[in-house]
Design goal:
195 residues; alpha+beta; Catalase HpII,  Chain A, domain 1; 2 domains; 6-stranded antiparallel sheet; 6 strands
Length: 195
């Protein structure tokens, strides 16, 4: 969205716009093209979509570290809309279908981990690991209910997402993006609390 907005300005305005300079720098980075080509577009519903963690984490036990990336896979299986069906959906269809789906029971996902091998790049979120890497199941996540608007707003002011694990036995990789994300989410949380 930011990139589109910047491109609509005159060349002089784009030169003075800090966010456009950042976008141009990002586009000039070798990994940007790879990341754009490999991103997926959510064209289904949350309950039937796979999600892939981009950052690597280390699970440490008795001095041995296993580096992994998370995957979240719907128990119900994947399902997507074709382009024609997607055009008929409202702008809020991802939220609209949730309460109805939950009436039939919890929405479940398998929490998986793709295990890195020696030589895999673990400190760059734009590096995709080969698909043949081992994937192990860690557990199941279930969504049982949604919150009402008032309770949701209260929780949004209280909760801050932190991408850096703060639990014993799980460590962040050396990916510098993790620290940046943690700082951005902290600032976002502070703004929500003061709103």
């Amino acid at each position: 969205m930011l990139l589109k907005l910047c491109l609509n300005f005159s060349a002089d305005t784009r030169r003075r716009c800090g966010s456009c300079r950042i976008q141009n720098r990002v586009r000039s980075h070798v990994s940007f093209d790879i990341g754009v080509k490999n991103r997926s577009v959510l064209n289904g519903i949350v309950a039937t979509e796979k999600f892939f963690g981009i950052n690597a984490f280390k699970f440490v036990k008795e001095g041995k570290a296993t580096t992994l990336r998370y995957r979240i896979v719907p128990v119900a299986g994947e399902a997507h809309f074709d382009t024609e069906a997607l055009q008929t959906k409202s702008a809020t269809y991802l939220f609209d279908e949730f309460p109805e789906r939950l009436q039939a029971g919890p929405i479940a996902f398998k929490l998986l981990a793709q295990i890195a091998k020696e030589g895999d790049i673990t400190d760059d979120a734009t590096e995709i690991w080969p698909e043949e890497r081992e994937v192990v199941e860690l557990g199941t996540l279930e969504i049982e209910k949604t919150l009402g608007d008032e309770e949701s707003r209260a929780q949004q002011k209280r909760i801050i997402f932190d991408p850096i694990p703060r639990v014993e036995g799980v460590e962040a990789s050396n990916d510098p993006l993790l620290k940046v994300r943690a700082n951005v989410y902290l600032a976002s949380g502070e703004q929500r609390r003061s709103a």
